Structure formats: C-alpha cells, structure tokens
Amino acid sequence: MGAVGRMVGVALGLGLIAASCGSGGGNDNGVSFRAVGFFQGQLQGGRCQVPTASNAIADQSIDLPLDSSFVDTGYPADIFFCRAFLWLESNLVNQSIVVDQLDIEYEIPGARIGIPSNTVPIGARLNPVNASETVQNPFGPPNVYIGQPEAQLVPASLVLFLRQNRQTLPQLPYAMTIHVTARGRTDAGENLDSNEVNYTVTWNQDTLSTTTTTQ
Length: 215
Prior knowledge:
12 strands; 3 helices; 6-stranded mixed beta sheet; 4-stranded antiparallel beta sheet; disordered C terminus; mainly beta
C-alpha cells in the first residue's frame, strides 16, 4: 500500500543517449520522448514541494476508499496531494517537443465490463537535451517536465462509474492499473508518442492512506 519511496538522481533523467526524431507517431520505445514514471513530492510544513529531477521519489501506487464520504468531499486534489507527479523528458537534439495530451486507459483484472478511457490536454514544452544551461527550468535539466494530472488521473466520473457498476467488478478491495501514454509534436512537426507508464490504485472499503515522504 502507498508509495515505494526511493531517491532518484539526475542520472535517471539523463541516462539515455540523445536520439534523433523518428517517423510520425514513432519513438522507439521511449528513446526520443520518454515517460520516466510517477513520483511524489515532499511535504514540508503542510505544503507540497513539487519534485525535481534531483529529489523525486518514486510513487507507484496508492490505496483509495471507493465509497468513503471523504472521496466525495475531498477527492481528488486532497487524496493525490503531493502524489502521482508524471515525469516526462526529451532526448532530442536541437528540437523541442510540445506535449499535447495524455491518453489514459484503465485495467481491472477480473472485471466483466470495459472501463472508460480518458484523454487529458496538458500543453507542456520539453526543451532539447542539448539546450543551453542558461535555460531556466524549475524541474531541473531543461529537457525535463514534471507535472501532476491529479484530478484527471482518476476523474470523478470514473469513481461514479465504478460505484454504479460494482456488480460487474471484483469485490473490494481490488487493484486498478492506470496506463498512461503522452503524445507530443516536435519542432519539425512530427508526432511522437512516449512509452507507457503505469500507476496502480487499490480500491478498498473505507480505509484511506495517503502517506507522503517527508524530510
């Protein structure tokens, strides 16, 4: 339950060799346009410190209460507070990538009904991997973007769908895997899709855990 915390250094963000852009829609499994994964920030004095490339902590899963009134009144911003930040990066040389959207699909093993997918517009710009060091980027290296889909990762409409279709879903608690792919366009006008990254929500009765690593 909760996140598996570990420190992730800058080397993770820059570990790939810079590659040129491929054909439209291609990406050679995340070489040019990479989704690194999900991370959490650090909670300090009741405020969330957004993760950067030098201090991001891996965040792979969370437990959420499907039927709790807290979900109705505080969901989703409070539950995902300082959690589920998506790290994207470009390894293109001399070209930026404008990330247009996230395509999100949901998988529940044992479900007898398809789970509706979701598309989220984001509008993030990734600078080239060889961008000048003078380029200011709050997330660290200029080719890195770290943002939080929060409300759109598990939208309220999906929670309602799960509640209304529980007869076709496994008994609580059950795991739901979220599959996320980012889509963008290079300066040259070529479409790129990132590799897929996953995040797991375990839906339970009413126990809520939102543990966030602190310093």
